[in-house]
Amino acid sequence: MEANSDPDGITATALLNCLRREVAEVTTTADHLLLKLPHTGALLRARTGRWPSSPELLAGTWHPITWHELAVLIVKELGTAPVGFLDEIAASHSAIAAILATRGAPPNDAYQRSEQALIAGHRYHPAPKSRGSLPASAWLPYAPETHAAFRLAVLHGDFVDAGDVALPAGSLPAHPLQLSLLGLSGDADGPLVWPTSSVRTVYDPAADLFYKFSLDIQITNDIRRLWTYDLHWIPPLAQVLRPVFADIAATYPGTAFLLDRGYRTSPSCFEGLAVVVRDGIRRHTWPGVTPLLAAGIAEGFPGNPLDALVDPAAWFRAYVSAVAPPVLHAFFAHGVVMESHMQNVLVGVDSAGMPVQAFYRDHEGMRLLPSHTSLLSSVDGDLAGARGVSEAKGWERLQYCLIVNHLMEIAGAVHARHPGVDLWGEARAVFAAYAEEHGSPPLLRALLESSPSVPAKANLLLRWTRAEGAASRYVDCPNPLRSTPAPS
């Protein structure tokens, strides 16, 4: 049975991935991962492959254990669980089962198929598909994983605009599920849209625009609401990013940025009814090129270019060449930390399936380095806002998003089809070329020559810190870009 059609297997794999990355002492045999939990001494094993699977516990002999038994072992290892932790895992499992039972035929459009391919969700999160306490019947009609499409509701009245909002005057598009959560109603006579991988952002093909809504549901680490702080940052951030993006696009032809232009909302429900208007994808796509979600490429969907690779090393080098240099240039040349994880990056492939374009989206996760102090002060005032970060924190965030969350997962998907190919030599050459062309920045030189590890977000341990949803905690992950020193 394929992993993507088995809720038990998907749930167990997510927990095994968290243990492997964040908690366990790991060794390998020919066919298994061995995971020793340091506090309790429990010894687990799992079958190797693209993802660890089929967990077993050593109790005299090896005994298969369920995903729920695995979750209980995690609680015993880490101590008193956060409130609702086991319930969230169970809810995620139930959501995956409901998605698989409801999932319709794939849409004709390859881009939509790639956006709606993420049945398993975040592979390194303990409860990636939990939708809070909502019954499945409430959210399934709006779920990307079911290949949903639906009409937005439209409210009429006096609304507040900020930035460039390309919407008819006096009208406010609203997500039907959010209206229900707020106890409101509206006629679903708006544009026909389909949900992207982020669930709360939808694409309007007729207008070639994306709309990002508040959804008062916890998905992975956070309630997906458009907070006032982030809304207020949209116009000034767009003003800063336009020239930055223009320079990067000129330096790296084929690079495009889906700008968050502005927002509209109701004064009576500022956060709850807010909608962010974002550039569409078609206006930025070259003729003959098909945009695909990076996370969809990693996860798999009908028409995935990875299923027809002729030269996997050349394909991966082209992929890294499209995706990585713009992110590095934003950081080193412009002091902008892009959140270039797999759900924020689209890759354009030509008719042969080769990557030729990269598209970046979602300003909410972008951060600014101290070179933007004046802007940070003018928007945040005396508040200790999260938009500004030190160079060290920004570099940590960039490495996680670009390397660990993104390139390592794409490489894993290629290796699953073509084991033994030296992909990281190709990636290292792209990073090294950027370094050589731009004065060999010390942070980048250390990444390529000496750093033994890169930071990986600890989504399991983060729960035990009771941190806010936007917080991050990192653990060390082996650095795949580090050059192997020559024998002495």
Notes on the protein architecture:
Belongs to the IucA/IucC family. InterPro entries: Aerobactin_biosyn_IucA/IucC_N (IPR007310), IucA/IucC-like_C (IPR022770), LucA/IucC-like (IPR037455). Residues 314-467 form the Aerobactin siderophore biosynthesis IucA/IucC-like C-terminal domain. This is Iron transporter. By secondary structure, the protein is α+β, with helices and mostly antiparallel strands. The protein is 37% helix and 22% strand. It has helices at residues 7-22, 67-78, 85-102, 110-115, 136-139, 176-181, 228-251, 294-299, 312-334, 373-380, 391-417, 423-437, 442-449, 459-464; strands spanning 25-28, 32-36, 43-47, 53-59, 61-64, 150-151, 153-156, 160-163, 171-174, 192-195, 201-204, 209-213, 215-219, 222-224, 255-258, 260-265, 275-279, 290-293, 336-337, 345-349, 355-361, 367-368, 453-457, 474-478. The longest helix is centred in the C-terminal third of the chain and has 27 residues, at 391-417. It is globular, with a radius of gyration of 22 Å. The model has no long low-confidence stretch (mean pLDDT 93).
Helix/strand class: alpha+beta
Shape descriptor reads: globular
**Helix share of residues?**
25-40%
Overall mean confidence score, pLDDT: 93
Assembly form of the protein? single chain
At the fold tier of CATH, the topology name of one domain is Transferase(Phosphotransferase), domain 1
Strand order of the largest sheet: 6-10-11-12-17-16-8
Query: Please, how many helices?
Result: 14
Unreliable segments of 5+ consecutive residues? none
Distance between the termini: 48 Å
The count of β-strands is 24
**Share of β-strand residues:** 15-25%
Pfam families: FhuF (PF06276), IucA_IucC (PF04183)
Pathway: Siderophore biosynthesis
GO molecular function: acid-amino acid ligase activity
Family: Belongs to the IucA/IucC family.
